[in-house]
């Protein structure tokens, strides 16, 4: 089944879409939020893929400002789960989200006072607080985001060893993927966390419209079991994701495989 799905990129690369999370896919998992960097060679690989496929884009919970220097300009970026984006070198934000910027600024200071500035990740239009360095903080952080979300009208959600507060706007990786993948077929998404499940939902929506889709989970000690169970393919860490991208590039360059292939 996996070979058939990858062969679809060889049959029609010009109409294919490849969408990627950043943390844990293009980067190794970092101990601190601002320490994640793109793996060596991945930027060049994405450029090669973008020259063969209809569209290659990064869809992330990170702000565009964090990613733009690491992701080549040929590659579109969707940041903050769809609240902002970079396309054609232009950085834009969703107008409906702007009124919540002041509330987020206020909560950044409040979170730093409660938990320490080193675990608070301000993102402009949203906020993440991390318990990676101290898992015992998780229950208190969960209660904190619930309480302050109700007070400010922001939505709270769990993320990778963290909690997030966002404007109450129906934007996620799934809505972003469906918008970017319009008229593309096949379409693949590669992710590693709970925030990537909506992207899998988006692929399901595209599949009902007739598109060939590939849901890829990047496995790690932190990968949620539900993500693995929903995936068509599970790869081992960012190195496995890179190997998969190279296989997709090979398929796009050479066409469908003619022999039996197993594994990555």
- Which fold does the CATH topology of the largest domain refer to? Rossmann fold
Straight-line N-to-C gap: 13 Å
Structural class: alpha/beta
Question: What is the β-strand count?
Answer: 12
CATH class of the largest domain: Alpha Beta
Please provide the ordered H/E string of secondary-structure elements: HEHEHEEEHEEHEEHEHEHEH
What is the number of independent domains?
2
Task: Please describe the structure with a list of short key phrases separated by commas or semicolons.
2 domains, 264 residues, Rossmann fold, 38% helix, globular, alpha/beta, 4-stranded antiparallel sheet, 9 helices, 8-stranded mixed sheet, Alpha-Beta Plaits
Molecular structure report:
With 264 residues, the protein is of the alpha/beta class. The chain has two domains: 2-94 and 171-254, Rossmann fold, CATH 3.40.50; 97-166, 2-Layer Sandwich (Alpha-Beta Plaits). Helix content is 38%, strand content 20%. It contains nine helices and twelve strands. It has helices at residues 2-11, 42-52, 64-67, 101-115, 138-152, 173-180, 197-208, 225-230, 237-254, and strands at 17-20, 55-59, 76-79, 84-87, 90-93, 120-122, 127-130, 155-159, 162-166, 187-191, 213-219, 233-236. Strands 5-4-3-2-1-10-11-12 form an eight-stranded mixed β-sheet, with helices on both faces. A four-stranded antiparallel β-sheet has the order 6-7-9-8, with helices on one face. A hairpin with a 2-residue loop joins strand 4 and strand 5 (90-93).
């Amino acid at each position: 089944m996996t070979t058939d799905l990858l062969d679809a990129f060889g049959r029609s690369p010009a109409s294919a879409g490849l969408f990627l999370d950043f943390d844990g896919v293009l980067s190794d998992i970092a101990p601190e939020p601002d320490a994640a960097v793109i793996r060596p060679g991945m930027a060049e690989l994405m450029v090669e893929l973008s020259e063969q496929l209809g569209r290659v884009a990064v869809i992330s919970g990170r702000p565009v400002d964090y990613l733009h220097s690491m992701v080549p300009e040929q590659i579109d970026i969707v940041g903050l789960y769809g609240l902002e984006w970079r396309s054609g070198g232009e950085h834009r934000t969703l107008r409906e989200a702007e009124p919540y910027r002041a509330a987020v600024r206020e909560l950044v200071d409040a979170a730093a006072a409660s938990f320490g500035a080193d675990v608070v990740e301000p993102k402009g239009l949203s906020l993440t607080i991390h318990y990676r360095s101290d898992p015992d903080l998780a229950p208190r952080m969960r209660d904190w985001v619930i309480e302050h979300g109700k007070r400010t009208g922001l939505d709270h959600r769990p993320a990778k060893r963290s909690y997030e507060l966002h404007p109450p706007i129906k934007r996620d990786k799934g809505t972003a993927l469906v918008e970017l993948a319009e008229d593309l077929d096949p379409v693949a998404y590669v992710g590693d966390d709970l925030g990537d499940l909506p992207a899998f939902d988006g692929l399901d929506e595209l599949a009902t419209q007739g598109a060939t889709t590939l849901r890829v989970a990047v496995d790690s000690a932190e990968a949620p079991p539900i993500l693995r169970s929903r995936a068509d393919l599970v790869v081992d860490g960012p190195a496995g994701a890179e190997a998969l991208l190279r296989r997709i590039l090979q398929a796009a360059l050479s066409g469908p495989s003619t022999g039996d292939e197993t594994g990555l």
